[in-house]
Amino acid sequence: MASMDVFNQDAFSMIQLTTAVEKAPYLPSFLGSLNIFEPDPIRTLSLAVEERQGVLSLIKTTPRGAPLSERTTEQRKIRDFRVPRIGKEDVVFASEIQNIRAFGTESEFMQVQAEVARRLVGPTGLRNQLEYTKEAMRLGALQGILLDSDAATIYNWFTEFGITPPTEVGFNLAANVDGELQPKVNAIKRAMARAAQGAWLPTTQVNALAGDEFFDLLIKHTDVKETYKFWSAAADLRAGTQRGAFESFPFGGIIWHNYRGSDDNSTIKVATDKVKFFPVGAPGVFREGMAPGESFDFVNTPGRPEYVFMIPDRDRNAWVKFEMYSYPLYICTRPEILQTGKAAA
Prior knowledge:
Elements: H1 14-23, H2 30-33, E1 38-41, E2 46-53, E3 75-82, E4 86-93, H3 94-97, H4 108-121, H5 126-142, E5 145-147, E6 153-156, H6 157-160, E7 169-170, H7 181-195, E8 205-210, H8 212-220, H9 222-227, H10 234-238, H11 241-244, E9 248-251, E10 254-258, E11 274-280, E12 286-290, E13 307-312, E14 319-326, E15 328-332, E16 339-342
Parallel strand pairs: 1-12, 7-16, 8-10
Antiparallel strand pairs: 2-3, 4-14, 5-6, 8-11, 9-10, 11-16, 12-15, 13-14
């Protein structure tokens, strides 16, 4: 019969648990799988962002021998942003492991370890709950506003950098006017590239997260159907939303995604009639700060994606608590690039 002494094994140490969680496979969420947030492990509790405003200006002609105008030095600002903490805990009680017995080739230790792993990295384990929270934070950063679980604003990146959000673009999709869609798409791409101020590369790709209503109207639009008329993928588009749900396709130089958020279609979502535009492959635009954990073991060390702690009941030896923490800051350093649209005019 297994006892609480099993948790004295080195496998349940803070370092071993944290390392095991980092190696454990998990199903990545959509925004996480895009890998657009550049990891930035930091050794401090705050992430510093330097802003440098460089302006290209025309040079006025001058007579030979006349004094030259002096180049204006770029204005630089440095801002510090405190990295937030997210965390959750689970408790294994003595009564839950008292009937675990060795079976076949499995030892009591292995069965307890499997139960702990289930609670940490299983489908509903602590890590997936943290990942669920991170997905919400990524979506917020892609829209320029980082929100907490209660919808309170953690950081409004437009406000922090003194930028007025771009005006929402009305696509007038229901009218289905031939030739109207492509010019609006072109205007969005141009506005994003011009606002990037050096962060835009020839390989930068515009992506769009579309709500359900917007996506359904988009794939029915005459301009989209005409583009795909001679493509093998046209059959999927003609079939309507039944096949196109939660899928992606290119049009007008943009990759359009029918974004699938949380199953309740409320906690993590793009509004059904909206679309959010963001760049992929634009260096420095999106960053993920990772601050170090709160234990002495991790002081002044580069931050990790997650930290796991085991806290035993030292008074009664009746339970063992597992806590998982993460210290992420999802930041958009150039929120002026972000564009948004709506299905209506």
